[in-house]
Design brief:
The protein has one domain: 3-Layer(aba) Sandwich (Alkaline Phosphatase, subunit A). It is of the alpha/beta class and 453 residues long. Helix 3 crosses helix 13, helix 4 packs parallel to helix 14 and helix 12 runs antiparallel to helix 13. It is 30% helix and 19% strand. The two termini are 21 Å apart. The strands form four sheets. The protein has a ten-stranded mixed beta sheet, with helices on both faces. The protein contains 14 helices and 18 strands. The longest helix is centred in the last third of the chain and has 24 residues.
Length: 453
């Protein structure tokens, strides 16, 4: 073990020895007044990793986590993601496109995803390319090349930034389908490029893709073998079973590749309630979204885990799976506290699924984190914010005032440049302890899987 590795391990154990309830962000997640030294010592063991499950809560900063915890569990409660035994934080900055020597302190999901997918910083909007447009191999591509099974799950369009960074390389995140290539002439198939994000995902060939974005895959390919046909046609020709609803997902067999397209765009949100507004709202509770048609993130994640597990039962290698709760971010942009909280709760339920699997398969590394912080803040009830606010009644029976003020009312609320939480369990989980950078997550996962560029 390297000196840095020994130092990190000793630091983790030291943090555990005297931990108390307030230690949540300093090294040990889900801490209580009991002594958790034994739990943490078990968690910092090295060992061989067969599977990696990476869970990304898009826009899930500490404020979003706290709001969901207060609402669903109460202030003294704990979410599933709070119970991962080792916790750190990582920095999230991007690079300025015009001068990559300088940081862009507030990242978007494309640059942040490029960071952990490739180990390289890039500019906002970049999908797994360096600032000069060169593609860099991703965790998923490296894992697939080494014989691992792979999967990519999201509640956004599959061609959105976070799922897209694993299996595509374009100079602008807007280039999602073959009809969306205006900003990416060098990547366009018509100009000899690899094509849109959707086309490249099919070509990369992960064992499963589950999410929204059916409209992107229904676009017509403009050049090459599949010219005049849709990306869905291309996927079927590549051996994908294409499913479009919860019944199709349930019926999908693990023996082949599956492309699940469950909405034309982003999938529907779990909860609804009053949007924040200038002057605030009356105290209220969130309600289930009557328009929700499924599948839930937990259903997609459960199917993904069981499929990849079945595919690797007798194989030398295990699997790499990324799961994104995308609309924490999207509802935050819209100053929609119930939408944001509902997506965080469903993401947290998915963390439990991953942890349940890891308990039965102790050679599984589970990592949960966010790509960037976001706008929402919990403020005093008496505060007179110039922004938009909404008041919710939490599990404690108390009122919680949510504030959105990173842009004027009616405009999309903004990301923030804060560091965000990263937590892990399983072999090599100690590599997330302390303050790291997003690019370090690439090293953590590739090291765990034993794959190289």
């Amino acid at each position: 073990m390297s000196t840095a590795g020994r130092t990190r391990r000793v630091a983790a154990i030291t943090l555990a020895a005297g931990v108390a309830a307030g230690a949540l962000g300093t090294g040990i997640a889900g801490a209580s007044n009991g002594d958790r030294t034994k739990d943490v010592r078990a968690a910092v063991k090295g060992g061989t990793v067969r599977n990696v499950i990476l869970l990304i809560g898009d826009g899930m900063g500490d404020s979003e986590i706290t709001a969901a915890r207060n609402y669903a569990k109460g202030a003294a409660g704990r979410l599933n993601l709070d119970r991962l035994p080792l916790t750190g934080a990582y920095t999230t900055y991007a690079l300025q496109k015009d001068d990559p020597k300088l940081p862009d302190y507030v990242t978007d999901s494309a640059a942040s995803g490029t960071g952990w997918a490739t180990g390289h910083k890039s500019y906002n909007g970049a999908i797994s390319v360096t600032p000069d447009g060169r593609p860099k191999s991703t965790i998923l591509e490296l894992a697939k090349r080494a014989g691992f099974r792979t999967g990519d799950v999201t509640t956004a369009e599959l061609t959105d930034a976070t799922p897209g960074v694993l299996a595509a390389h374009v100079v602008d995140r807007s280039c999602q389908g073959p009809g969306d290539m205006k900003a990416c002439p060098s990547n366009d198939k018509a100009n000899g490029g690899a094509g849109s994000i959707a086309e490249q995902q099919v070509q990369t060939g992960a064992d499963l893709y589950f999410g929204g974005g059916k409209a992107r895959f229904a676009q017509t390919v403009k050049s090459g073998r599949f010219k005049g046909r849709t990306v869905i046609d291309q996927a079927r020709a590549a051996g994908y079973n294409v499913v479009t609803d919860a019944a199709g997902l349930n019926a999908a067999r693990p023996s082949g590749k599956t492309l699940g397209l469950f909405a034309d765009g982003t999938m529907q949100q779990e909860l609804t309630g009053p949007a924040a507004k200038v002057g605030g709202t009356a105290p209220s509770k969130c309600t289930p979204n009557d328009a929700f048609s499924g599948p839930h993130l937990t259903q997609m994640a459960s199917k993904a885990i069981s499929t990849l597990d079945a595919q690797t039962k007798r194989a030398k290698r295990g699997f790499f799976l990324q799961i994104e709760g995308a609309s924490i971010d999207k509802r935050d942009h819209d100053a929609d506290p119930c939408g944001q909280i509902g997506e965080t709760i469903e993401f947290d339920n998915t963390v439990k699924l991953a942890q349940d699997y890891a308990r039965k398969h102790p050679d599984t590394l589970v990592v949960t984190t966010a790509d960037h912080g976001h706008t929402s803040q919990i403020i005093p009830l008496e505060a007179e914010s110039p922004g938009q606010t909404a008041t919710l009644i939490t599990a404690d029976g108390a009122q919680m005032k949510m504030n959105y003020a990173t842009n004027p009312a009616g405009a999309s609320q903004e990301h923030t440049g804060t560091q965000v939480r990263i937590a892990a369990s399983g072999p090599q989980a100690a590599n997330v302890v302390g303050v790291t950078d997003q690019t370090g997550l690439f090293s953590t996962v590739t090291r765990a899987l034993g794959v190289r560029r």
